[in-house]
C-alpha cells in the first residue's frame, strides 16, 4: 500500500487494528482531495473498507 500512497503523494502516517464495529483505522495525509480519494480507494482495494 505504501508504494501506491507514494504514487499519489500521500503519506500513511499510522495504522491501528482495533476491536469494535470497525476493525482497522488508517491515518494518512495528502495534499489535496483527489489524492485522499485515491488513497481511500487503495485501502478499499486491499480489503479495508467501511
Percent of residues in β-strands: 25-35%
Principal-axis shape equals: elongated
Number of strands: 2
Sheet with most strands: 2 strands, antiparallel
The helix content, as a percent range, equals 25-40%
How many individual helices? Answer: 2
Strand arrangement, major sheet: 1-2
Counting copies of identical and different chains, the oligomeric state is single chain
Query: How many structural domains does the protein architecture include?
Result: 1
- The average pLDDT is 87
Which H/E pattern describes the elements?
A: HEEH
For the CA atoms, what is the radius of gyration? Answer: 11 Å
Structural class: alpha+beta
Low-pLDDT ranges:
none
Could you tell me how far the N terminus lies from the C terminus, measured between alpha carbons in angstroms? 17 Å
InterPro entries: GYD/TTHA1554
Brief sketch in words of this structure:
Pfam families: GYD. With 50 residues, the protein is of the alpha+beta class.
Describe the protein's architecture and organization.
Pfam families: GYD (PF08734). InterPro entries: GYD/TTHA1554 (IPR014845). It contains two helices and two strands. It starts with a helix and ends in a 5-residue tail after the last helix. It has one domain (2-45). The longest helix is centred in the last third of the chain and has 13 residues, at 33-45. It is of the alpha+beta class. It is elongated. It has helices at 2-7, 33-45; strands at residues 11-17, 24-29. Strand 1 and strand 2 (24-29) form a beta hairpin.
Amino acid at each position: 500500500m505504501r508504494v501506491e500512497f507514494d504514487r499519489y503523494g500521500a503519506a500513511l502516517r499510522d495504522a491501528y487494528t482495533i476491536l469494535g464495529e470497525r476493525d482497522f483505522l488508517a491515518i494518512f495525509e495528502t495534499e489535496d482531495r483527489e489524492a485522499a480519494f485515491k488513497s481511500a480507494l487503495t485501502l478499499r482495494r486491499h480489503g479495508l473498507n467501511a
